[in-house]
Write a structure and sequence with these properties.
Largest sheet: 6 strands, mixed
Number of strands: 14
Strand order of the largest sheet: 6-7-8-3-9-10
Shape: globular
CATH class of the largest domain: Alpha Beta
Order of helices and strands: EEEHEEHEHHHEHEHEEHEHEEHEHH
Helix content: 25-40%
Structural class: alpha/beta
């Protein structure tokens, strides 16, 4: 039996300006998100992720196309949709002079059933180690983010829409957030999450869509999209890069994109480390640093076929 779609987007397009000054922010987006999944909406800054979210929430209107949430039109039925979703914006603006408790109780009263919602908010705040008695102006950026998460989740919405949810959170709180999302999914609820953090996507998402320059380039399982076996490696020598090392590295099948800068050499590497370690043993290595590819690099490798060349 096919999965039930919570979110359906068809031909959604948004342009700004007119004539020669017209800018295309989102181009003919088609996308479905299923009930009970965490869907990662990925792409570099400026790709159109936030524009998509603002269209879904009816904060801005599309130039063409349509979107439906719970089978309801996002424009005609926005009030009903807003009752059933939770939202955390990328740029969170709260009342600076109010305490977290005051804001929570106000939002809960607007939603109705303020006592039950406030109780749930207290449990979420405890999970996130958030002191809601403090005024917003006295909270760090990370704690403001926690307060935003509490407000988004405290009424147990059927769908969570989160724009860069873990920005400013320390690693321990990020892990708590991941556990909260796993629990949320286990209850059959749905999360639409925009991010450009690869580790976050790998930790919690079921499927991902990659947006680039306003166009959806791919929708895949998270296992498939992140199964690109290469890393960037930086090697810093105590003295200069050994003579002939760049040529030697470039001759290795598992290494490409070699560049040198003073005593430092940087390369893209796939496969085992042993050939690299043998090659650099002619110099005194002060530091060896390995970093994951960015989401943009993973996308380019996965869809250009580069991962086949490096196997």
């Amino acid at each position: 039996m096919a999965s039930e779609s919570v979110l359906e987007i068809r031909g959604l397009t948004k342009t700004y300006g007119s004539g020669k000054r017209q800018t295309l922010a989102l181009n003919q987006l088609d996308l479905s998100v299923n009930r009970g999944e965490i869907f990662g909406y990925l792409g570099p800054n400026g790709a159109g992720k936030t524009t998509t979210i603002r269209l879904l929430l009816d904060l801005i209107r599309p130039s063409s196309g349509s979107a439906r949430i719970f089978g309801l039109d996002t424009r005609a039925d926005s009030v009903e949709i807003h009752r059933r979703i939770g939202f955390l914006p990328g740029e969170l603006s709260l009342w600076e002079g109010r305490t977290g408790d005051q804001i929570i109780h106000y939002v809960a009263s607007v939603r109705g059933d303020s006592r039950g919602i406030a109780k749930q908010a207290g449990e979420l705040a405890e999970q996130l180690d958030l002191d809601t008695s403090k005024r917003v102006r006295d909270l760090s950026s990370g704690n403001k983010r926690k307060l935003g998460l509490v407000i988004a989740m405290m009424h147990s919405p059927e769908l969570l829409i989160l724009d860069e949810p873990t920005g400013g959170l320390d690693p321990l709180v990020q892990q708590t957030f991941h556990e909260m999302m796993d629990d949320y999914r286990a209850k059959g609820r749905t999360v639409f999450l925009s991010s450009h953090v690869l580790s976050e996507v790998q930790a919690i998402c079921d499927r991902v869509g990659i947006l680039r320059d306003g166009e959806l380039k791919a929708v895949e399982s998270v296992e498939k999209i992140t199964n690109v076996e290469f890393n960037w490696v930086d090697v810093t020598f105590r003295d200069a890069v050994p003579a002939g090392l760049q040529r030697q590295l470039e001759s290795l099948l598992t290494i490409s994109d070699v560049s040198t800068n003073g005593a430092r050499v940087r390369m893209r590497m796939a496969g085992d480390f042993d050939p690299l370690l043998r090659a650099i043993s002619s110099g005194y290595v002060e530091m060896l640093h390995v970093e994951e590819p960015s989401l943009e690099e993973i996308f380019l490798a996965f869809y250009s076929g580069d991962e086949e060349k490096t196997e």
